[in-house]
Description:
Layout: H1 2-21, E1 29-36, E2 39-47, H2 48-53, E3 57-62, E4 68-75, E5 84-89, E6 93-95, H3 99-116, E7 120-123, H4 131-134, E8 155-157, E9 164-171, E10 179-181, E11 183-193, H5 200-220
Parallel strand pairs: 3-11
Antiparallel strand pairs: 1-2, 1-4, 2-7, 4-5, 4-8, 5-9, 6-10, 9-11
Helix pairs in contact: 1-5
Amino acid sequence: MKKIMMLLAAAVLLLGVNGQAMASFVNGDLIQVVYSGTTEIATDEGALATLLAGGTTLNFSSPLANANVAYFDYTSTSGSGYGQVWATGTSATGKEGSLSTFVTAYNNTTGLYIGQGGSQVTVSPSLPNSYFSQMDSNGGTVGQLAGFIPAGGAEATLVANGPVTQSLYQYTPTGTRGNTTGSIVATINTGNVAATPVPPSILLMGSGLLGLAGIGRKRTA
């Protein structure tokens, strides 16, 4: 019995460590956000550089039906010193003057996601640091990403579960007055609602429990 309890404790510890290791939402990772009603779900799709190395057509699924969907990314490292922004949209124009506002909103939003743990998190859009609150100004500037995309259009609507197609633009701000022009680097297709993936840690724990059950049966025999 002691050995079984020790193995169970080890499985729980593994689950906790693995859950912490899955936390992501770092600069350079492409973030998908979908929201509808009282639910906002953010997914870290992985390093954008790695995704683009595999081709310029990216295919993802939405974890939420009939929702607004947007993709964005930011990195503070670039030759200009002002970082780089990637965002879905319908216009190549980004507003230089709103870069700092966007970066603040990005940091606040990703900070909220990181605080939840994991690479996919569910929060309430009403939270002060949610995407909806920070990037959409609580519905006042929907699709503008904290004003960086003045024409809006950063979001698309998944009607009847999608699919929808969006262009992903890359911007390299220079800090000058006026606007910055982005270039399309990828096409993103968002498909139908996907089942929530089972974390690897759960699978490992399940395997361990099955093994313990086998040991128990042998002892009984």
